[in-house]
Amino acid sequence: ALPGIGxxxxxxxxxxxxxxxxxxxxxxxxxxxxxxxxWGLPARPRDADLRALAExxxxxxxxxxxxxxxxxxxxxxxxxxx
Length: 82
What we know:
By secondary structure, the protein is mainly alpha-helical. 60% of the residues lie in helices and 0% in strands. Helix 2 (29-39) packs across helix 4. The N and C termini lie far apart (34 Å). 18% of the residues are buried.
């Protein structure tokens, strides 16, 4: 445990620096928003809800996260946000 380093920071670091296919940063708002848009949810799923949704993606959850990020960027660029 390091001050200022929590679960989200560790998961993002692992996904991009270590690249294990299993890491999934469900607390990341962009992933939550991408899931909301993709599945037509009324609200962004909470961390625990998105983790539950991603269970079926094991052992490739990091790959799914990257796909969701790409989808988020596309969706937001169409809205003129990005």
